[in-house]
């Protein structure tokens, strides 16, 4: 988001809206919103990531 395009307070609101789009981030063990399979946590290149093994096959 370009901060110059937003009035005071609006930039933070817009940035926080992206959090609502995260479907699996830090939700290991919870059910996938799409298929209800448990979300798993794996390591990729030394970093943790979360995914649904059904909706996001490796």
Please provide a written account of the structure.
With 58 residues, the chain is an alpha+beta fold. It has a domain at 23-58. The chain is built from one helix and two strands; from the N terminus they run H-E-E. It has one helix spanning 10-17, and strands spanning 40-44, 47-51. A two-stranded antiparallel sheet has the order 1-2. Strand 1 and strand 2 (47-51) form a beta hairpin. The chain is elongated and about 40 Å long. 3% of the residues are buried. The mean pLDDT is 77.
Describe, in short, the structure shown.
The chain has 58 residues and is an alpha+beta fold. It is 14% helix and 17% strand.
Q: What is the tally of helical segments? A: 1
SSE string, helices as H and strands as E: HEE
**Rg calculated over all Cα atoms:** 15 Å
In one word, what is the shape? Answer: elongated
Uncertain stretches: none
Oligomer: single chain
- What order do the strands of the largest sheet run in, or round the barrel if closed? 1-2
Label the structural class. Answer: alpha+beta
Q: Give helix % range.
A: 10-25%
Q: Calculate the terminal CA-CA distance, rounded to whole Å.
A: 31 Å
Overall pLDDT score: 77
E-strand count: 2
**Which band does the percent of strand residues land in?**
15-25%
What summary fits the major beta sheet? Answer: 2 strands, antiparallel
Topology readout:
Layout: H1 10-17, E1 40-44, E2 47-51
Antiparallel strand pairs: 1-2
What are the key terms here?
58 residues; alpha+beta; two-stranded antiparallel ribbon; 1 helix
